[in-house]
Design a protein that fits this description.
mainly alpha
């Protein structure tokens, strides 16, 4: 990019530099970071205390009200999708 072009500001140069830095990151590394974040979130969800994820005592509860189960399923599916595709 030529800095003598009319209309080019410091923000254009900063944006171009950021674009170059971001495109230099290899996609397998991006995938690993993203899946790692999903797995870290999964571990965090599974470690939550049971009383923090249950409905109030006056609400009938069954296996379908186990929020940790459904959060783990959703995060596992997302991680699997990003690992496969």
């Amino acid at each position: 990019m030529n800095s003598t072009e009319p209309g080019i500001t410091i923000l254009h140069r900063v944006g171009e530099t950021l674009r170059e830095v971001m495109t230099a990151v290899p996609m397998p590394l991006v995938r690993a970071i993203f899946v790692g974040l999903l797995l870290a979130l999964l571990v965090w969800v599974l470690r939550l205390p049971r009383e923090r994820v249950r409905p109030p005592a006056d609400v009938p509860s069954g296996w379908s009200s186990n929020l940790k189960l459904w959060a783990a399923v959703a995060l596992g599916i997302q991680a699997l999708i990003y690992l496969v595709f």
